[in-house]
Structures are given as structure tokens and as C-alpha cells.
């Protein structure tokens, strides 16, 4: 597994090529990219700052990926999450999962994102015309995570 | 015993501090008791950490419950619900 928390942008193509390189058992790669939108909760978003808890971030992401590896037959996983100043259209997060078949790859990719949203210590602060504001957690994110326990 | 306490995001801003070291009596070796000590400061502390407020606690970088035990030199972090991704 590759886990990175970084200010720098990433190239999803390069990351996916590296994830599957040289492993002929891999028959499927599912990936997700999260992006900064210019609108949230009715306000224009000019910029965003992503704060995190450095000592915990890597540990939390590793635990989430380990849980996915225990549930599905995975052949590799890459998680990259950016921190610092980000702007609309910027990439925030990449999750890419390799497996022999698509069902495991799709499910694990969604699982990792759902857990990341509710368990990994990142916080978004948006700059809007009304001033700066911390992004509120969404009930739908909690529900998305909870359904994996059913 | 000494406990390192970290604050993040909105709570860091409200408290005006990102980290501190608290000296707790050994008899108060539980997350809930540490929170009581902080609430006793009143003001923003009492308000933001009141029962029913939405915040999370991690002990040594793992999410923890209110009844989680504490040991000397543990790192406790208090923060709002996360919003990454």
C-alpha cells in the first residue's frame, strides 16, 4: 500500500501505472478523485485550506486500508490526500485500488473513501464572500460509513 | 502525570492554543476526567466541550471513547468531526 499526505499535486495516471506495474494478477483498478468545487452550502468558494493532525493522519489512513485489505482480495492500494491551500478544480484526494476482479476493487475504493470521510483527521476551511468558515460534517457521510457495518 | 493535549481546526481557534501539557493527578487517568479539567476553565472551554457538543477525542493518535484510560505522557487530541476527502 502507498499512503501519502502532501501539499503537492498528484498525477493519477502515473499513480495508477505504478500501482499495477508488473503484476499480471491484477485484472481491475478502481479509482476515485475528490476535487475542490467553487460552490458549497450556497456560497461561492474562492479557496480552501486543509488542516490535518500529522501524527495521526498516516496512521488513520493505514488502518482504513488495512481494514479494506481484510474485507476484500486486494492486490495493491494507493491513497494520496493533499493538505494546505487548495483552489476550485484542484485535486484533493486519490484512492486507487487494484484487484483481480472489479467487484472487490469498486467496493474497496468506496469503503476507503467512506471511512476516510469520517475517520481520518482532516479539516477543511473555506474562503467565501461572507468570510472564512469551517466546513460542517455531513450526516450523509456518517450514513455512508455506517452502511458498511450492516 | 503529564498529558500532552492538542487542539485542531475550529477548537484550536476557539481556545487560541494548539497544544499544551497538563499535569493531572494519577487518580484522574481517563479522557472524561481530562475533559472535566478543561471545562472547569469556563468560557469557551466549558461551552465547546459541553456534553452534547460535537467533538472527537484521540489518544495516542487513535480515536478514543470518553472512558478510555490515560497514562503518563499520553498524547490526547481534541477536535471537531473530520471533514476531509
Description:
The complex is a heterodimer of chains A (150) and B (85). Chain A is of the alpha+beta class. Chain A has a single domain, classed as Alpha-Beta Complex (Aldehyde Oxidoreductase, domain 3). Chain A has four helices and ten strands. Chain A has a four-stranded mixed β-sheet with strand order 1-6-8-2, with helices on both faces. In chain A, helix 2 packs antiparallel against helix 3 (102-119) and helix 3 packs across helix 4 (139-146). With 85 residues, chain B is of the alpha+beta class. Chain B has helices spanning 9-15, 31-39, 43-48; strands at 2-7, 19-23, 56-59, 62-64, 75-79. Chain B is built from three helices and five strands. Chain B has one domain (26-85): Ubiquitin-like (UB roll) (Roll). The A-B interface holds A 34, 50-53, 55-56, 59-60, 81, 92-93, 113, 116-125, 134-137 and B 6, 8-10, 54, 58, 61-63, 75, 77, 79-85.
Q: Whole-number radius of gyration of chain B?
A: 12 Å
| CATH level-4 homologous superfamily of chain B | Beta-grasp domain
Overall shape of chain A: globular
Using CB atoms under 8 Å apart, which protein chain pair has the greatest interface? A-B, 27 and 18 residues
Main sheet characteristics of chain A? 4 strands, mixed
Q: Based on helices, strands and strand pairing, what is the structural class of chain B?
A: alpha+beta
How many structurally independent domains of chain A?
1
Strand content of chain A: 35-45%
* Named CATH topology of chain B: Ubiquitin-like (UB roll)
Give me the side-by-side strand order of the main sheet of chain B. Answer: 2-1-5-3-4
The CATH architecture term of chain A is: Alpha-Beta Complex
**Largest sheet entry of chain B:** 5 strands, mixed
Number of strands of chain B: 5
Amino acid at each position: 500500500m502507498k499512503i501519502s499526505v502532501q501539499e503537492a499535486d498528484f498525477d493519477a495516471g502515473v499513480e495508477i501505472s505504478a500501482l499495477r506495474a508488473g503484476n499480471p494478477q491484477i485484472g481491475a483498478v478502481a479509482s476515485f478523485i475528490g476535487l475542490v468545487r467553487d460552490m458549497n452550502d450556497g456560497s461561492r468558494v474562492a479557496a480552501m485550506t486543509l488542516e490535518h493532525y500529522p501524527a495521526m493522519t498516516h496512521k488513520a489512513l493505514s488502518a482504513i486500508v488495512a481494514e479494506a485489505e481484510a474485507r476484500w482480495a486486494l492486490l495493491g492500494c494507493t491513497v494520496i490526500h493533499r493538505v494546505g491551500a487548495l483552489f476550485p478544480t484542484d485535486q484533493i484526494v486519490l484512492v486507487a485500488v487494484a484487484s483481480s476482479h472489479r467487484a472487490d476493487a469498486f467496493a474497496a475504493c468506496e469503503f476507503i473513501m467512506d471511512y476516510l470521510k469520517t475517520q481520518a483527521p482532516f479539516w477543511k476551511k473555506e474562503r467565501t464572500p461572507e468570510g472564512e468558515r469551517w466546513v460542517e460534517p455531513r450526516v450523509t457521510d456518517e450514513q455512508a460509513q455506517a452502511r458498511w457495518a450492516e | 502525570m503529564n498529558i500532552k493535549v492538542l487542539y485542531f481546526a475550529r477548537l484550536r481557534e476557539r481556545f487560541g492554543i494548539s497544544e499544551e501539557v497538563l499535569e493531572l493527578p494519577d487518580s484522574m487517568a481517563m479522557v472524561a476526567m481530562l475533559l472535566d479539567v478543561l471545562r472547569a476553565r469556563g468560557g469557551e472551554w466549558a461551552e465547546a466541550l459541553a456534553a452534547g457538543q460535537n467533538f472527537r477525542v484521540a489518544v495516542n493518535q487513535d480515536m478514543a471513547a470518553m472512558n478510555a484510560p490515560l497514562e503518563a505522557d499520553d498524547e490526547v487530541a481534541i477536535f471537531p468531526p473530520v471533514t476531509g476527502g
